[in-house]
Amino acid sequence: MVGIGDCAIARCPVKIKTSGLGSCVGVTIYDRHEKIGGLLHTMLPNIKKAGIKDNPTKFTDAGIEYLVAEIIENGGSRRKLEAKLVGGSSMFENSHMNIGERNIKSAKETLKKLGLEIIAEDTGKNYGRTIIFDTLTGDLLIKTMLRGDKVI
Amino acid sequence: MEKIRSLSEFEYGALKEIGNIGVGNSAVSLARLVNDIVYTRVLDIKFGLIEDIPKITGFSESPVLGTLMRIKEDLTGYILVFFPENGAKNLCMSLSGEKEKEDLTDPMNLSLIEEVSHILAGTYVTSLAKFLKLNLSISIPFATYDMSGSIFNSVVTEIGYIADFALMLDAEFLIKEKKINGNILTLFDPESLDCLLKRINSMIDQNP
Question: What is the ipTM for the molecules in this complex?
Answer without folding.
Answer: 0.76
